[in-house]
C-alpha cells in the first residue's frame, strides 16, 4: 500500500486583523479614554496638585468622542468610496483648521452686521451660525477633496464627517476651556466657609467637566452629521471629477443651515416665542432631545438612500434587507 508524500508547500498564514479593526475596539478606545481623562484630573491634578496636566485634560475631553467617531468611520470605509484613512486624517487636521478659521471669520462678520443694524449680535449669531459655519466647512471639504479622483455621495459622507469632526474638536476646546475659566471665577467669589456642595459645584474642573460631557453626548449629531450630509450632496453633484453647484446642493445647504440654527438658537427661540413665560425655558432640554431624534432620522434616511445607490450593505440597512442582499 502506497502512502502519499507529505506536502512541502508552506502553510498560508492569514495576516492578523489590525487592532483598530477588531470588533470591540471603538468601545475600548472610548472608555479607555474616559478612564484616562478621569485619572488625569483626579490623580496628577487633584491629589498631587500638578496644574500642568490641565491642557492635556481639556484636549482629551474635547476630542475623545470625536476621535471615537472617526475610528468608527475609518472602520466602515470600503474600496469603492474613493476615500482612504489618510484622507480622513487629512480632512480632520487640515480641513478642521480651515473650517474653524473661515467659520470664526464669517461668524464675526455676522455679529458686526447685526450690531450695525441695532440687533443683538449674540442672538443673531446663534440663529445664523448654520449659514456661516456650514458654508465654511463645505469650503474646507472642497479644498481637501479637490484632487480626489473619485467623488461619490458615500465618499462625501466620510470627508464631510471628518471635516466636521476637526471643526468640533477645535470648537470644543473653547467651550471646555471657557468652562474652566468660569469655574475659576466662581471659586474666587466663594466666601470662606461655604457649603461643601457649593464649593464642589464651583470648582473649575466641575464646570469644565460639565461642558465636556455635553459636547461628548451631542458631538455625533452636531457638526459631523451636518457637514456629512452637505458634503454628500456636493460630492453627488460632481461630474467628471469637478464640483458643481446644483439645486440639490443649495437645498441641502438650506436644510443643514436650518438644522444647525435650530440647535444653536434653541434657547433664544423659546425666549422669543414666550417672553412672558420664562417657566417654558424648562422645555429647552426636551426640545433638544426632539432635535436629536429628528437629526438621527434625517441621517438614517439619507444614508440608507446613499448606500442603496452605491450597492453597499451596511449596519444602516435593516436586517431583512441585508439578508436579501
UniProtKB/TrEMBL annotation:
Molecular function in Gene Ontology: peptidase activity
Superkingdom of this protein's organism: Bacteria
Transmembrane feature ranges: 28-48, 54-74, 86-106, 126-148, 155-176, 221-238, 245-263, 283-299
Pfam families: PrsW-protease
Keywords carried by this UniProt record: Membrane, Transmembrane, Transmembrane helix
Protein name in UniProt: RsiW-degrading membrane proteinase PrsW (M82 family)
Organism: Plantibacter flavus
Amino acid at each position: 500500500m502506497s502512502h502519499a508524500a507529505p506536502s512541502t508547500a508552506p502553510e498560508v498564514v492569514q495576516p492578523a486583523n489590525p487592532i483598530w479593526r477588531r470588533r470591540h475596539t471603538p468601545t475600548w478606545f472610548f472608555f479607555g479614554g474616559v478612564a484616562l481623562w478621569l485619572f488625569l484630573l483626579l490623580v496628577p491634578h487633584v491629589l498631587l496638585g500638578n496644574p500642568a496636566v490641565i491642557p492635556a485634560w481639556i484636549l482629551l475631553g474635547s476630542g475623545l468622542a470625536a476621535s471615537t467617531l472617526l475610528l468608527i468611520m475609518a472602520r466602515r470605509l470600503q474600496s469603492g468610496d474613493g476615500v482612504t484613512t489618510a484622507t480622513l486624517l487629512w480632512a480632520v487636521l487640515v480641513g478642521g483648521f480651515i473650517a474653524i478659521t473661515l467659520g470664526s471669520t464669517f461668524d464675526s462678520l455676522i455679529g458686526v452686521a447685526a450690531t450695525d443694524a441695532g440687533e443683538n449680535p449674540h442672538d443673531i449669531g446663534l440663529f445664523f451660525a448654520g449659514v456661516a459655519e456650514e458654508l465654511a466647512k463645505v469650503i474646507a471639504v472642497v479644498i481637501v477633496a479637490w484632487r480626489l479622483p473619485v467623488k461619490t455621495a458615500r465618499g462625501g459622507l466620510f470627508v464631510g464627517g471628518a471635516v466636521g469632526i476637526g471643526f468640533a474638536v477645535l470648537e470644543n476646546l473653547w467651550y471646555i476651556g471657557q468652562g474652566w475659566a468660569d469655574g475659576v471665577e466662581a471659586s474666587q467669589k466663594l466666601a470662606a466657609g461655604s457649603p461643601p456642595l457649593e464649593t464642589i459645584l464651583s470648582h473649575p474642573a466641575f464646570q469644565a467637566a460639565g461642558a465636556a460631557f455635553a459636547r461628548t453626548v451631542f458631538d455625533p449629531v452636531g457638526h459631523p452629521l451636518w457637514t456629512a450630509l452637505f458634503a454628500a450632496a456636493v460630492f453627488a453633484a460632481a461630474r467628471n471629477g469637478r464640483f458643481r453647484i446644483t439645486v440639490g446642493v443649495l437645498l441641502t445647504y438650506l436644510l443643514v443651515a436650518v438644522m444647525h440654527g435650530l440647535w444653536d438658537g434653541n434657547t433664544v427661540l423659546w425666549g422669543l416665542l414666550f417672553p412672558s413665560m420664562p417657566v417654558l425655558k424648562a422645555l429647552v432640554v426636551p426640545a433638544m432631545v426632539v432635535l436629536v431624534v429628528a437629526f438621527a432620522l434625517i441621517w438614517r434616511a439619507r444614508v440608507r438612500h446613499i448606500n442603496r445607490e452605491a450597492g453597499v450593505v451596511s449596519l444602516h440597512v435593516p436586517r431583512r434587507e441585508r439578508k436579501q442582499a
